[in-house]
Structure formats: C-alpha cells, structure tokens
UniProtKB/TrEMBL annotation, chain A:
Signal peptide: none annotated. Belongs to the NqrB/RnfD family. This is Ion-translocating oxidoreductase complex subunit D. HAMAP family: RsxD_RnfD (MF_00462). The complex is composed of six subunits: RnfA, RnfB, RnfC, RnfD, RnfE and RnfG. PANTHER family: ELECTRON TRANSPORT COMPLEX PROTEIN RNFD, ION-TRANSLOCATING OXIDOREDUCTASE COMPLEX SUBUNIT D. The lineage of its organism: Bacteria, Pseudomonadati, Pseudomonadota, Gammaproteobacteria, Oceanospirillales. It comes from Vreelandella nigrificans. Its cofactor is FMN.
TrEMBL record, chain B:
Keywords: 4Fe-4S, Cell inner membrane, Cell membrane, Coiled coil, Electron transport, Iron, Iron-sulfur, Membrane, Metal-binding, Repeat, Translocase, Transport. One of its GO terms (biological process) is electron transport chain. It is a peripheral membrane protein. This is Ion-translocating oxidoreductase complex subunit C. The complex is composed of six subunits: RnfA, RnfB, RnfC, RnfD, RnfE and RnfG. Residues 351-380, 390-419 form the 4Fe-4S ferredoxin-type domain. It comes from Vreelandella nigrificans. The lineage of its organism: Bacteria, Pseudomonadati, Pseudomonadota, Gammaproteobacteria, Oceanospirillales. Its EC number is 7.-.-.-.
Length: 349, 553
C-alpha cells in the first residue's frame, strides 16, 4: 500500500480529529446553557462524558476488542457530551448512567461499534430517558434561577446522591417555551397566550440565545468542512416550510416558523445530531431527503403529536429510513446516460 | 478557452519542483539490461533470438504474439546471455551501435506503411496501461474520430516526465500528434495541460503556429486538480463529452494519447527508431540528482538510481509511477519498462506507511471527491462482503482507481486496494464461469486448424495436378458445378474475411476497455477466424486450379 495518506501530508483530517472538532464546537452551546441554567449543565456533560468512556472501555473488553484505539477516536466521548447537553441541569447521576448505557452499550456497541450503529446513540439514550423518566426529563429550571449559592450546592449534591432537592422542587419545575405553548389549551389563542406572560422573565430569550450559540458552533463545523451543509440546510428548510404552512393556515393556534427554529433542540439537532455520519444517509441527494424528513417529522410531532419537542424521535425515525434512502439515491456515475439507463439499479441492491 | 468540470477531485501536494528544475539528460548506458517479454497490455511477446546471439540497439528480439501484444527490441548492443519465459537479458558490448528501420515521412507515406511501422517499432502507450499503439491508431476503422486529445495533464504528484518532454521536444510531440491524427482521421487536436506547467505551456505556444496542418491544434490550459489526467476526466474537461460507462473515448469520437507516446511514434516513423528508451522522472528525497532522464528499457532500477546519487541508508521505498496510483517495488533489480514513467525513491518521512485502519464512519468524504461519481463507501462495504452482484449494480468497474477516496478517508481505509481485489476476484470468476465456453473455442480452433491444413494440402495437390496436367479427355463431368462452387467459395471467403475483421474489432475493444483482463479466449476466437479465412483461401485456390485444369483442354 503506497498511497500517500491524508494524515501524512496534513491534508485531510482523521476520524479522531473530526470527533474532537465536533466536541470543540459544542463549547459555545454548552457555555450558553451554563450561563443561563447554571453549572449543572457542565456537571451533566462531564459526568456523561466520563460514563461514556467507562462504558465504551468495559463493553470493548467484554467484546474482546482493542480498547485504546476505540477510546482514542473520541467517538464515545462525543456521544456522552451530546447526551449530557440534552439533559436538564444537574440530572441525577443514575439517570445519566442509564442514558449513557443505552447509548454506548446498546445503541452503539451491541450493533458492532463505531460505524455500524443504525441509530444515533445519543438520541437512543435520550429517547429512552424521555419515555422512561418523564418527570426527571422535563425539570428545566427557569433561566438564571440559581442566584442563591445554597441552591447551586444543593443541586449538585442532589445530582451526586441521585435525588432532587425536595424543598426546591417547585423552583425547578419551570416549563420550556415549547412545553408551555404545547399545553396552552385549545381555547387560548396564541396572541392571548403570549400576552399572559406564560413564562418567567427572560425564558424565551435564554432559549433563543442558547439556540444561536449552537448555531455558531454548527457554522464553525460547516466552515471547517467537518460536516457538510446538506442535512442542516434541508432540515431547517423543511421545518421552516412546514411550520409556515401550519402557521399560515391558523396563526392563532400554531407557532411561527421562527419560534420553531429558535426553541427546543432545533439548531442543536440540525448541526450536531442529524449530522452524525454513521447513522445518517450517505449520498448528497439522500442527505437532503434525510434532513428534510427530520425537519418535517419534528414539526408534525411538535404540532400534532404528544411531545413538546421531537428532534430525538424525528432523527431516530429517519435513521430507520437510511438504508432505503441509500438504495434509492445511488447517484448517476459519469458516462451513464440520463434517460433509461439499464445499468442503474431499479430496485433494492 | 473555457474548461468544463468533472466532479470530485483532490488537491494533493504537488512536489513537482523536485524533479522539474534540472534539464533533460541521458542516463548512463547500463552494462546489462533485462527486458521483460510483457511490457504492454495483452500477450507476452515470443523471443526470436537465442542465447549467444549478438544484437544491436533496435534489433528485434521478441515478436508480437497475437493481436494485443507488441514487438520487443534490444535496448543496448551486446550479447544475449539469458532467455527465460519472463524476460531476455542482454550484456552490453559498450559500442552502442544501432540498427534502425528505414525512415518514413508521416505526411506522405501511406497509412498502412505508418501503421506497420508503429507495429514493428514495438510501440505501446507510455502513459501507464501500455496499450499497443498500432491497435489504437486503427480505431478509425470502427469509429469516426474527430478529436485527438493529447493528455499532458500529468496530474499525479511528483511526475514531471511529460512536462520535460514538452519543454524539450514541443515540435516533435506536435508532429507526433499530427501523425496519429492523420492515421485516425481526427481533424482537431486538443492538448490538455494543467496550469502548473508554465514552461511547457510557453514552449507549446511557440511551437503551435508552425504545426497546424493537417489537423488544427488547440491548447487548453486547465486547473490543477487530481485526477484531471484521467482519460475520462480530461475528455470531460476539454471536450465536455461523457465517455459512456463500459465504453471507449472512440465511442464519442475522441482518442487520447500521452505526449511520450506521440514522441516515440514520431521517432519510430521519422527516424526509424524502435521503442528502446523512454523518459523517466527520477525523484524522491533520497536521490541527490533528481530530474528527468532518457533511460534505456530494461535498465535495472537499482543501477539507475545509483547513477543519480541514491542514498541507500535513507531509502524507505521505491514507487513506480506516482504516489496516488503507483505500486511499490519489492526489489531494486526490477527493470525499467515501456510503462515506467516515474521512480520515486522516497524517505520514510516523505511517504510514510499508512496508519492503522479504523472503522468507516460513513462520513461521505470519499463520495465528494470521487471523479466517477460512485459511492466509494458502499463499494467498500460490499467489496469486503464479497457481494459481487451488488458491486456490479454500484458500477464497480467504472472506478478508475485514482485513489482520491483513499486519500481523503479519515479512517485510513485502503479503499482502492479493496476495489482492485474485488475486480480481480470478479475477473477470475468470469474466467471460471466461461471455462467451458473457452474449451469450446479452443476445440473450434483445433477443428479450424485441421480443416485449414486439409484444405491447403488439397490445394497443393490440385496445383500439382494442374501443373503437370494431362489432357483430361475423359472429363465428362457437369461444367456448371465448378462455377457454382467457385461462386459459393468466393462468398465463403468474403464471410471468413468479415469474421476475422469482426473478431479483431471485438478483441481491440475488449482490450481497450479493460487492459488488465486476459484476452486468451478472444485471441483464440480471432485465431480460429484467421484459420477459417486461410482455409477458405486454400479452397478457393484449389477450385480455381481445378477449373483452369478442366477448362484448358
């Protein structure tokens, strides 16, 4: 094998390099979340990352595979960081551990490890937690409520012992904007709902700024060519379009496209979750369809489904479609005529 | 002129200045050459000399075997010391005396004569595949050709042989192009060259106005992007035509030649020089005098590199060809052949061994750079799974093995290696499944040969009879029969001739499509057709002799 290799001439990045870039690009988003929701976000991310590395190492030992190269590629760390960033601040340690176990052991390694998992590991972990522990998973505090030093300490202590500080529970059970809007009730018009100031002061702007921070990190990834633009653009584009259709049909009951784009996990999901190369579609055309599918599902579930946010479910559902997309979007190679090419696959490969 | 785009491509470090600073020189004459019998696509040549024979430079030492094959000539004067079924070894006598063919004029001599010269000069494509030039020049018989594309892109890093050829012999290359254009009937010649060769471009620009006849020559400077020198990519770039999958450039009226081949063709025609030497780029960090050299074919690589100051203690590996598509040498005793365009004597820091492969993360980087718009990563999965029917559906055989995918792979997967192995496996499988077919063809050949021998024997007997003809008074046979016979025999002969032409066409096409496959079966079928033609000739001769004999009294 004489091929001049990327790493040797410094032209193309290695897998580990790609993974570390993505981790680095989560910093603005995590930073913004920390700013608004306290150090519980950082402890979530650190715990999840640590658990992910430990889980990866243990399962690799059980699978009798080399541990060092797998840990060295930072893919497990990235999964942990992404999962940690989705959780409500200072989640109990066992909650994080269960999520990481589902992500690393079940979703990733039981399917064959890096490169072989059909589903996005972080989203499998998140979806499992959301379905199994809805109480814990919806405990988003109102932003900047951690003014009291005691609360901060108590929260972290609660994370360590794995319970929630009972005295302050009401202070923690703030709703996210998506949650609030979802449960505003049929009788309440959107304008009335917003006029009633349903959320604590600054909640909406906090979530918007967090979303914009994720967007900043995502743009860095696109500029550095760590991810391609196809999936984020298709996903955000289709979300805007579908949300606009709903909104145009009935603005008094459906949220505006901008609201959908700037709340919840939309921008985080578009740049950091949907772009996971392993579980995403591969060809450019398939990536566009894949991204558009996620965007459409997110709006449909948010608007008509039972959950306030839907990025995890939308991504997992589209993960299911990837093999099909890959089969039906084989690009036309050079020298194959545009019309009626017998040599092109017409059905499943 | 505008250039069109091919998809994908990469920008590897060029590393060309290493070898394109020094002027073209002649490498010292070797004391010994080893000339492999197969330096070209197709069958190995058959030796036609014996150990102990004295030969001069340009003496024919092995003959073309079958249609897709090439003659081989001595590259130094001296004595044949060894003949194996792989190669012929010649020891030099130090005189360097030549035996050339009579000079021809490409403007005035007949195309048949010129084609015969390309054949007898042992010419094969010097760019890489080593396809016999005389076959490629005959393509006009089957396809109308309007454009000859001179492939001077030289997109691989390190290699500067074409660059130096164009700087040193711009007129000769252009004349060679005119020669081939005349043979294939192209009215237009387009030279495609990457913009990283300014000196070659200016040399061509100076030479261009004088050599615009009979075909018009256009120079197209294109962006430097690997692999713009791929035949299909270059044709797309300069002509905006897509070579059909599984097809040939000739199918869309184009023919592609490398400047080195054109120069060699002109030398064979104008100077009567068979292909005995070529220009080779000698480069890499471990030689002290890198540059381009005229090298006699058969020169051992070790001798050659030593003569340009090889530093053996720093040498990590020697690569034949470019770093993207070339192959590492296992021994420095290997000789320079007709297709050796570059030798890279690389240090370990220059071209280090590939890092350990890690799992594919389906990132799609390979797909973005694939110039054939294939799905390299899907091909990778299915190649490892040996799922050959799926590979066919994903158009594995459209892969030009340029290595762009391996180059960008973040997991360091040797993708092209996988594809080559898969192709090899599929080719072998095809041979295996067609085995009974091949046996049938060989049997047909034997039958044809026996029939031909019988027909010739009878023809000879009839001729003898006709010579000492006795007054055949008793000939009361029906006079109409021999005439009818003659007519049907003539038709049979014409049909046999057509069958030979068809077999030639099929073989030439198959060989050009995939020079790496084996053509034994098609060569057998061609030989069968040729035997049938000979038999038809003999029968016709016999019938003619018998009619004259019967009619004379």
């Amino acid at each position: 094998m004489s091929m001049m290799h990327a790493s040797q001439v410094g032209a193309a990045p290695s897998t580990a390099h790609l993974m570390r870039w993505v981790i680095a690009a989560t910093l603005p988003g995590i930073g913004a979340m920390t700013f608004y929701f306290g150090l519980g976000v950082v402890s979530n991310v650190l715990l999840a990352g640590l658990f992910a590395l430990v889980a990866e190492a243990l399962i690799l030992i059980l699978r009798q595979r080399p541990v060092r190269p797998a840990l060295g590629d930072s893919s497990a760390l990235l999964t942990g960081v992404l999962l940690g960033a989705c959780l409500p601040p200072a989640s109990p340690w066992w909650l994080i551990a269960v999520g990481v176990f589902a992500a690393i052991v079940v979703a990733k390694q039981l399917y064959g490890g890096l490169g072989h998992n059909p589903f996005n590991p972080a989203m499998v972990g998140y979806a499992l937690l959301l379905v199994s522990f809805p109480t814990y998973m919806t405990l988003w505090s109102p932003p900047q409520s951690f003014s009291a030093e005691t609360l901060f300490n108590e929260t972290l202590w609660a994370q360590v012992i794995g319970t929630l500080p009972p005295t302050k529970l009401d202070a923690l059970s703030g709703a996210t904007p998506l949650d609030a809007f979802k449960h505003k009730g049929q009788a309440v018009l959107a304008s009335e709902f917003w006029a009633s100031q349903p959320l604590p002061e600054g909640t909406l702007s906090a979530w918007r700024n967090v979303a914009l921070a994720w967007l900043a990190g995502g743009l860095v990834l696109i500029i550095k060519r760590i991810i391609s633009w196809h999936i984020p653009v298709a996903m955000l584009g289709s979300m805007t379009l579908i949300a606009a259709l709903f909104y145009a049909g009935d603005p008094s009951h459906f949220a505006s496209p901008l609201f959908h784009l700037l709340t919840g996990a939309t921008l985080f999901g578009a740049f950091f979750i949907a772009t996971d190369p392993v579980s995403a579609a591969t060809s450019k055309r398939a990536k566009l369809i894949y991204g558009a599918g996620i965007g459409t599902l997110v709006i449909i579930i948010r608007t008509l489904g039972g959950y306030p946010d839907a990025v995890a479910f939308a991504v997992l559902l589209m993960n299911l479609c990837v093999p099909l997309l890959d089969i039906y979007t084989v690009p036309r190679p050079n020298g194959h005529s545009k019309t009626a090419d017998k040599s092109m696959p017409e059905g499943p490969l | 002129m505008p250039a069109y785009e091919f998809p994908g491509g990469i920008y590897p470090p060029e590393r060309k200045t290493h070898s394109n600073q020094a002027p073209l020189q002649a490498a010292p004459l070797p004391a010994l050459v080893t000339l492999p019998l197969k330096q070209h696509a197709g069958n190995a040549a058959t030796p036609c000399v014996a150990v102990g024979d004295d030969v001069k430079v340009g003496s024919l030492i092995a003959q073309r075997n079958g249609m897709i094959s090439a003659h081989l000539h001595a590259s130094i004067s001296g004595t044949i010391t060894h003949i194996s079924n792989q190669a012929i070894t010649i020891e030099a006598d130090g005189h360097d005396s030549w035996q050339t063919l009579p000079p021809l004029d490409w403007r005035t001599d007949s195309p048949e004569k010129l084609l015969e010269r390309l054949d007898s000069g042992g010419l094969a494509g010097l760019g890489g595949a080593g396809f016999p030039t005389y076959i490629k020049a005959q393509v006009a018989e089957h396809h109308p050709i309007d454009t000859l594309v001179v492939n001077a892109a030289e997109c691989e890093p390190y290699i500067t042989a074409d660059d130096l050829i164009l700087r040193s012999y711009p007129n000769d290359v252009l004349e060679g192009a005119q020669l081939i254009a005349r043979l294939c009937g192209a009215q237009r010649i387009i030279i495609g060259i990457e913009d990283n060769k300014p000196e070659a471009i200016s040399a061509l620009k100076q030479a261009l106005p004088q050599i615009q006849h009979p075909a018009t020559i256009v120079l197209k400077v294109i962006e430097t992007r690997y692999p713009s020198g791929g035949e299909r990519q270059l044709i797309k770039k300069v002509l905006d035509r897509d070579v059909p999958s599984g097809g040939l450039p000739a199918d869309i009226g184009a023919l592609c030649h490398n400047p080195g081949t054109l120069l060699a063709a002109l030398h064979a025609v104008r100077d009567g020089k068979p292909l005995v030497e070529r220009i080779v780029t000698l480069t890499g960090e471990t030689i002290s005098a890198p540059g381009n050299y005229w090298v006699r074919l058969g020169t051992p690589v070790g001798t050659l590199l030593n003569s340009v100051g090889l530093m053996p203690d720093r040498l990590h590996q020697v690569i034949v060809g470019g770093p993207m598509m070339g192959t590492p040498l296992t021994t420095l005793n290997s000789p320079v052949t007709k297709t050796t365009n570059c030798l890279i004597a690389a240090s370990v820091t220059e071209l280090p061994p590939a890092p350990m492969e890690s799992p594919c993360i389906r990132c799609g980087a390979c797909e973005h750079v694939c110039p054939a718009q294939l799905l390299p990563q899907q091909l990778h999965w299915y190649a490892r799974a040996e799922s050959d029917s799926t590979l066919a559906k994903l158009n594995l055989f459209d892969c030009i093995e340029c290595g762009a995918c391996s180059y960008v792979c973040p997991s360091f997967i040797p993708l092209v290696e996988d594809y080559r192995l898969a192709k090899q496996r599929i080719r072998l499988k095809q041979i295996e499944t067609a085995k009974s077919e091949h046996a049938k063809h060989r049997f047909e050949f034997r039958q044809a040969r026996l029939a031909r021998e019988e027909a010739e024997k009878q023809a000879r007997r009839q001729a003898r009879l006709a010579q000492h003809q006795k007054p055949a008074g008793g000939s009361t046979g029906n006079h109409a029969t021999p005439e009818v016979d003659l007519r049907s025999l003539r038709i049979a002969q014409a049909a046999a001739k057509a069958a030979v032409k068809k077999a030639e066409k099929v073989l030439a096409r198959a060989a050009e499509q995939d020079p790496k496959q084996r053509f034994d079966d098609l060569e057998t079928q061609l030989a069968t057709a040729q035997e049938n033609l000979k038999a038809a000739d003999a029968r016709l001769a016999k019938a003619r002799a018998s009619t004259t004999q019967k009619e004379t009294p």
